[in-house]
Amino acid sequence: MKKFILYSITVLVIAFILPVKTQAIPAFARKYGYNCNMCHTGFTKLNDFGQRFRDNGYQIPGQEGKEKNVFDLAPPLALRLSFGHTLYNNDEGTASSFNLYGLDLLAAGVLHKNISFLFIYTPRIDEPSSIFSGLDSINSNPSQFGRLESANLVFSNIIKDALNIRIGRFEPGYHIISSKRTYYLFQPYEVYLMTSPRNNYTFDDNQIGIEATGHFQGGFKYAAGFTNGTGASADNNNYKDLYLSMTQTLGKGDGQSAGQRIGLFGYYGWQPLTLPGTVIATNGQTNGSDNKTFYRLGVSASANWKTLNMQMIYYLGSDNKALNTLDATKNYKFNGGFVELSYAGFLNNRLIASAMYNWVRPPSYDSDSEVNAYSALCRYYLGDWSAINIAIHAEYTHRITGGATKNKENVFALALDFAF
Amino acid sequence: MQKLLIYPVVLILANPMMLPGQEQPVKPVTAVNVHVLGPQKLGNLSPVVVPPGNPQSSSKILLGKQLYFDTRLSLDNTISCATCHDPAMGWSDAGPTSTGISGQKGGRRSPPVSNAAYSQLQFWDGRAATLEDQAKGPIANPIEMGSTHDVMIRTVEDIPGYVEEFKKVFGTSTITIDMVADAIAAFERTVVTTDSPFDRYVRGDEEALTRMEKKGLEIFNGKGHCTLCHWGPYFSDGRFHNLGVAPTDPASPDEGRFVVTNDPADKGAFKTPTIRDVALRAPYMHNGSEKDLDAGIDLYNKGGRVKDANLDPLILPLSLTKKEKEALVSFMKRAMTSTNPEVSGVKPPSVSDLPK
Fold this sequence. Notes:
The complex is a heterodimer. Chain A is mainly beta. Chain A has helices spanning 2-17, 26-32, 48-55, 190-193; strands at residues 40-42, 45-46, 77-90, 93-112, 115-122, 125-126, 142-144, 147-161, 163-170, 207-215, 220-227, 241-250, 260-274, 289-305, 308-319, 332-345, 351-361, 371-382, 389-401, 407-419. Helices cover 8% and strands 50% of the residues of chain A. Chain A has a 16-stranded antiparallel barrel with strand order 3-4-5-8-9-10-11-12-13-14-15-16-17-18-19-20. A two-stranded antiparallel sheet of chain A has the order 1-2. A two-stranded antiparallel ribbon of chain B has the order 1-2. Chains A and B meet through helix 3 of A and helix 9 and helix 12 of B.
């Protein structure tokens, strides 16, 4: 029985804390003949140039309209896969398992001058070696649900660098520190996943909508958008959530791999109390009523010294008291964040070492949602940068959850992470 | 674009050591502007594309070589093309900027003539579209050769040996500036370096590069961001970039490409030079402000020397470590230095060999 519980916990932990990470897109490296760390400090984390390339609609700044587009090239497809062994331990005991952590299928490219696209599909992956106690259905035990993580078109340089438009499902620009391009395969940015009792919005999710972004010579960048706020799903109310993010770079560099950067972001959304409302449309959207508001407000910072990077986010969340089933007299307020220190070393950034602290502070009456997580990782990239991209990845997390009663967990994973 | 891709590119690698009489007129071809295709992979140089209006021939190349090394083309018989584009100095000069007639100093570094045939535009600011156009410039520049085209033509016409050679090459004894430029350009199209350790490595010789040089190449094409501009077989995008170079005179900075285009985006932007044979021609940058390869790499590593509102978006601090910088220098120093005997061994004709 004990073994059974441990395995189950392992599966749940993996399913919960091991969301699929994208994105390294070797199709771009192949297109240009560049090595991966032209754009990545170490894949998957973008360096300053990689970020500029992304911001410019996957076009090299200054080359707009002069590059080969997808019709001149081999299909711009890429794949990323990670697998390995996980050792999980809590107060009850230990469990271990080989796992296939995730598979991403990616396509991205330039369709026409200043028009590009990004497409990421994550197929469903089962856990054939574990014992599962849930429903005997087709969806009973996936470690990764199949989904269209990203599918968007980018219209770049509409007003020079000051206006670019992204439409579709995309990673919102308020993800100043991207959870899709973190070194960590297993430890998420906890506060990104925080949800409150009656609000299923998660900061981490890619959203469907429209976003405007721009950057200016003085180092100022902005992103503003309207989205459903319901992840990949059709909207559940007729209000559109909105957000604004602003960053300012200090010194040379964009703050990803050089220079310093500070930022502010805010998100304002609506969540219906009455679902689905009076109307359910053919493609699933509803006019959910009794909409109540919530917001997220935060700051970010990133600082670089040589090949050392420190980045952090802190944000506050507040949901209308009508969404607070735990204490209907108060708005549900929480805060949280993370601090991540990363080092890139050896010749050509072959070695990445990182340490991270995550915390989530819910209101006192919801102390079970409290999280403290201490993580560290080491990644070593094998082979020739220009040919293959295989990283040996070792990661450890000590995670403490709960308020009065603390639950302690340890996760150690050794994985191979590769993209081509 | 597909049409451009399938245009045949005809090889005309005329050998300057060819014996007189071995005339090899070449079928004109349409020049392929490879840069319209965007970034190209590093690799071996393709044969030089010869413009239809100036086909190569061995006698024209020989004439061009004589003119290239002949100081009589300058007003006071002291300066030739080779004075500032010296084969012994990587087809450039000692710098930091060039010294012209009467010891006058130019404002810019002498660009290398080697492989200039692959450059889409000539001069640091790209004001000449062809080698032929470029060849005319310095003759009439008051601080370079200090002459005028008319004076120079009269000088050449007064040398019977030249008159005879021009007649042989162009079929007329009436010499024009266009003929002089055509001959010099024909010679310059033979100054092509194709046999560096990098070239041998690309052709499959794994031992051609040392371990350190291979690391340098990896950084060159990755973390060093070098191939963002130094791309393709020519190791240059042929475009213009503001790198944040320290100006020689901060009160009156060189505006570079802007002078040609009048486009504010081109202020302080200069053409990307090739990396081929780069170690032979320190100091670096358009004004020779970086004394050696270490200093040049340091400029890029810092994301430019000076703050410039027009800094190219490709210029960002690189966070290169000391070892990574050493590997880059190692790659550029030996692996990119050619050993083509027909180019590196080019000697100026002795005075007695020049037409009289």
